[in-house]
Design goal:
The structure holds two protein chains of two kinds. Chain A has one helix and no strands. Chain A is mainly alpha-helical. The longest helix of chain A is centred in the middle third of the chain and has 37 residues, at 17-53. The radius of gyration of chain A is 20 Å and the shape is rod-shaped. By secondary structure, chain B is an all-alpha fold. Helices cover 70% and strands 0% of the residues of chain B. Residues 451-472 of chain B have low confidence and may be disordered. Classes of the chains: A mainly alpha, B mainly alpha.
């Protein structure tokens, strides 16, 4: 049974380490591929710009 | 089926200890997957050489024929987002995400069969229809849940998810190229096993979202919401049902706002590579133009998160005023920048414009929430996405038609885009006026059903399709 006023549902600064580990793991799961893709595009853009306009 | 009961809305209500910061990664897992659609073009050349090998042979599909696959997927994205929004609000995000994963992953599998059998209709059915339905349901599935978890920062929350749609293509493009190269020896062009692999990978990745997402308990509020939320005149505390929302002028004004903002952005996106080469003839090579396009994709993705987060501070109306006023000024300045010969300035201006294009997509769910409440914001968002479909046709047609007409009438290629840029500025001024006309939704449109029927369980009732009277 869930309750509207239950204080356990956190919204920021989680205090227990398990909750924090879950959040960190979740963000790594989506963040690593995204960061890799952003880096690839950034490098490609820089290299191509240097080649193309140099 | 009992085995699938874990997908039910009532089984996905957050239990004590659940951290709301787990919801954005769940949403990102969906959007990073379905964002693959923007990278579909990497399959076009290999698909056109399945028989011929190194070149197209008689019997191979032409590039023009293959273009129908992407177009069908985008059409079904818009149609399914509009059609399944109310269903999504009723069954909850988990079942919707599961359906999206099945359709999107399954679409790849059917398309793979189409490649093996060389049956084009199977490609259309798989990637176009089935995949397109997965795109539409997947796109809107986390939106209302995020807004409910982050009532204090709805722009930031939806921006994080919709940013993923922009980032998905950046992951999918190198992944597709790698897989096709890996499977090239075992199948023509390596396309069929690549489709199978990607369908499976995306299904698994999206299932992470399915298992992670939760809806907040009824009437849940973040601890510091009162301190964080600054009262604004446009932000309602009432709710409007999806069919009722479509009868309000506010819905259609926002439809115009989105359509015009997207149309203007597509004006640059669609022609980015030839535009920079033709405007700065002899100074920008095709390779540099490809780098320019890559930078625009980064600006598009960054704008989705940045502008929507910023809108939490300055308000949604002010954010769109910025898009339209700054956008009109920048579009109008492009012909002069082209004449001045400053490539760097052109790139900066184009990146700002594309960031606002992405920002327009990401900020609109929060604008809808401000005006129509959270009850059926996902369904309303789905209906509003038809503006995207309209802009997808309008933008490229305007740019291409005017450019060709200008060149045919003797205008040098370097100036062939001038009229288009002024037209885009004019469209943005119309958008400015539409945004100016947005007022709070009249109370006669507000939903009263939940107040009358509190015995059915607030969370389920608030998500259920509404048959109650539409007005006061």
């Amino acid at each position: 049974m869930t309750n509207a006023t239950q204080p356990e549902i956190r919204h920021s600064a989680p205090t227990d380490s398990l909750s924090m580990a879950k959040v960190v793991g979740a963000w790594l799961f989506v963040g690593i591929p995204l960061a890799w893709a952003v880096w690839q595009v950034f490098v490609k853009a820089l290299v191509l710009f240097r080649e193309g306009t140099g | 089926m009992a085995v699938l009961s874990f997908l039910d809305r009532e089984h996905s209500v957050a239990k004590p200890g659940y951290n709301r910061w787990l919801v954005p990664p769940a949403a990102l897992a969906i959007h990073l997957s379905i964002g693959q659609v923007y990278a579909f073009s990497v399959f076009k050349i290999p698909l056109s050489r399945l028989i011929g090998g190194s070149t197209s042979a008689p019997g191979d599909w032409s590039l023009a024929t293959l273009a129908w696959i992407f177009s069908t997927a985008i059409v079904f994205l818009g149609l399914s987002a509009a059609a399944f929004g109310a269903w999504l609000e009723r069954v909850g995000p988990r079942r919707a995400m599961f359906t999206a994963a099945l359709c999107f992953g399954g679409g790849f599998w059917v398309a793979s069969a189409g490649v093996v059998l060389h049956q084009f209709w199977l490609l259309i059915l798989g990637y176009g229809v089935l995949g397109g339905i997965g795109l539409g349901i997947g796109y809107i599935s986390p939106v209302s849940t995020l807004i409910k978890w982050f009532p204090d920062r709805p722009g930031m929350a939806t921006g994080m998810a919709i940013m993923g749609f922009g980032g998905g293509a950046m992951i999918a493009s190198p992944l597709s190229v790698f897989l096709m190269s890996y499977f090239k020896t075992s199948a023509p062009q390596g396309v069929a096993p690549t489709f199978m692999t990607m369908g499976t990978l995306y299904f698994i990745y999206m299932m992470y979202g399915v298992f992670t997402v939760r809806v907040p308990p009824a009437d849940w509020r973040p601890r510091h919401a009162a301190a964080a939320a600054t009262p604004r005149r446009l932000v309602t505390t009432a709710d409007v049902e999806v069919n009722t929302a479509m009868r309000t002028p506010q819905f259609w004004l926002l439809w115009m706002v989105l359509c015009l903002n997207v149309t203007a952005g597509i004006g640059i996106l669609e022609q980015a590579s030839p535009m920079i080469q033709e405007m700065f003839r002899g100074r920008v090579t095709p390779a540099a133009a490809a780098g320019f396009v890559s930078l625009l994709s980064l600006a598009n993705m960054g704008g989705r998160f940045g502008w929507s987060s910023f809108s939490d501070y300055i308000g949604r109306k002010a954010t769109y005023f910025t898009f339209f006023a700054l956008g009109a000024a920048l579009y109008a300045s492009i012909p002069r920048i082209g004449a001045s010969g400053s490539v760097l300035l052109f790139v900066i201006v184009a990146a700002i414009l594309i960031s606002m294009y992405g920002g327009g997509f990401a900020t609109i769910p929060a604008y809808l929430r401000d005006l129509f409440g959270t009850m059926q914001v996902g369904a309303i968002h789905g209906r509003l996405l038809t503006a995207w479909s309209a802009a997808g046709i309008l933008g490229p047609v305007l740019v291409n038609y005017i450019r060709e007409e200008q060149i045919a009438s003797g205008v040098p290629k370097a100036h062939a885009y001038d009229i288009t840029m002024y037209l885009m500025a004019a469209l943005l001024i119309v958008g400015f006026v539409c945004n100016l006309l947005v007022r709070p939704v009249s109370s006669r449109f507000h939903y009263l059903g939940a107040a009358r029927d509190t015995s059915a369980g607030a969370e389920v009732a608030r998500g259920a399709p509404v048959t109650a009277p539409k007005g006061v």
